[in-house]
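Late entry, 5-amino-5-deoxy-1-O-phosphono-D-mannitol complex.
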Amino acid sequence: MCGIVGYIGNRNCLGLIIDGLKRLEYRGYDSAGVAILDKNNDINIYKKKGKVKELESEFNIEDLSGHTGIGHTRWATHGEPNDINAHPQTDMSGNIAVVHNGIIENFKTLKKKLEKENYKFVSDTDTEVLANLIQYHFKQNNNFETAVRYALSEVEGAYGIAVLNRSVPDKIIIARNGSPLMFGLGKDEIIVSSDAAAIINVTKNVIYLEDGEIAVLKYDSFQIKTITDEDIFREVQRIDYDIEEIEKGGFEHFMLKEICEQPDAIQNTYRGRINFQTGDVKLGGLETVKDKLFNAKRIIITACGTAWHAALVGEYMFEEYCRIPTEVEYASEFRYKNPIINKDDVIIFISQSGETADTMAALKEAKRLGATTIGIVNAVGSSIARAVDAGTYIHAGPEIGVASTKAFTCQLMSLVLITLMIGKNKGTISDENLMEIAAELKLIPEKIREIIERKNDFKFIAEEFKDSRNFLYLGRGLNFPVALEGALKLKEISYIHAEGYPAAEMKHGPIALIDENMPVVFIAPKDSTYDKIISNIEEIKARKGKIITVATQDDNEINNYSDYIMRVPKTLPIFSPILNSIPLQFLSYYIATARGCNVDQPRNLAKSVTVE
Ligand code: M6R
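Prediction complete; structure with ligand written out below:
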């Protein structure tokens, strides 16, 4: 959740590190800091509570020269966000500086051990303990790499770290266990980061570190080993997107940019994978496991947050169109419930970042239990993408806004493709139906464009409701998860309390909340659920709730029941969650901006949740 940047090379690195940290701020942003080795081999540290721009006001970039440095943006786990707990953390002599993502679970034990050796601590962080532990081992054996390896062999928990040592100024040492870390190879320079977004400005050639590995980096060479000292050879990989893709491109916020990118993003998800005439789908990444998928007795889908909502839609799709019993699990619960997993089970992991710690932990458990594992992931080369048996990338492009938007709809599109692939093979979808779905699929980007063109209508509704204190979102069938997603979007960026429910559940409790101050958003497509939804709307109207509907373009009947309507083009049921989500994304975006909230970096949240 925090971000790491490091540099060793021929340039003055402070500006580069600051630039990289700004690109990573979406991952965590309660404090930031840098440590720069100057020409006298002194470590200069600046750190500050708040965002990177607060940190920048602490120094004059021109005054601080140095060709080796590390930096960090923090999302607090141990110790409140303040200047002292910000990273880099040093050992008590100031010799070793460490930036760290993750949690060292046994830090209290390690701290006690060091205190017995007269080590003193000034922060509340687990990272300061690690810095001192490295120094402790460095004092014993005077070898930087060995000291880091020995220290890490004592550590329990997750980490991605970068370490500077003023006694060994020609090296940065990095290591990872459960928290992403990679380095980019430039000409006579190496840039380290927890996320490719901070590397891409310098080079597109990257090496991903795996769990249990450590790399010793010099400006012109590197060496990777396991923590247990075995040599590792690793191929260089190319990053497949450009810097423009991770910049705002004229939009006020990343979230708005990403909402508006959905027509192209969705097209990228299905491009080259479906025959529009026949509906035949080929997902290259699933070739090795497709027989397992076709013969699965049961599919389990697991994920967190928005990706979990996509999983719920997937459950409807697999059961309705493929007739495969499907279960959805919160990834964070999966491994703690002693899951009953058979070898014939296929478990699908959905993740935008591919780094979510809970999802990764569930994946490890699923593999341990012998299931076939499949990823639906956005971030290419991410930990989950590499750990699954097989997978399909959603190709949504980098998603920077903390609130997931385009990744969600692209996850839904990936699930449609998998559904069609299985349905065709099992014969649970007729050829005629396949052809109809394939023809409609091709129109989805254009239909999303039509919705985007109506964004001012959604903005108008947002203005009306920006001061509401609560919201209810209701939907049925495939659109029940869309209601959950609409509510999540609103609460995470506008801090308005919102809940999603299956529309019929409302009368079993939530209806008690309804009065003239309660806006209720109904997802009301013209499908088999329509009449029931109308009855549910009547129940709310009778209690004076305000009705906002997401309704199909040509549905005039809905005018009689709605105070406000958000229109979407007509489509087939399998695509309705995609189209219906988009007005809800706009609604939450415009409510949040009208309230003056920072939509790209909402409080307490981070883009990639790499702690359990
Ligand atoms: O990167 P992932 O898809 O694994 O992330 C899962 C959730 O943390 C994420 O969807 C989160 O709920 C978003 N902030 C929702 O907008």
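The two ends are 11 Å apart (CA to CA). Will revisit in the morning.
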